[in-house]
């Protein structure tokens, strides 16, 4: 795999992981936000249907390259909240992408809605 050019990683987001606990009202409790710099966040916005039968969704993908943003993302980040400064997204899955012949992670694809 070739390395990605750092000039393409133009986004900065914050991510808040759940603690697994619930507050007095039954809502999830989140850890303090962690800022991820030099990442790529591909946003999408989809609308299905027309007029009164409209459904909107925003399936997006966050690409985190450990070479430029030293963080380890794993399954504990599922259901975390990503904030890009405009909207909040919920993490649905974290996919580590490895080098072909190494056990080293090339990037993480964080799928969110």
TrEMBL record:
Pfam families: Minor_capsid_1
InterPro entries: Minor_capsid_put
This protein's name: Minor capsid protein
Species for this entry: Streptococcus vulneris
Taxonomic classification: Bacteria, Bacillati, Bacillota, Bacilli, Lactobacillales
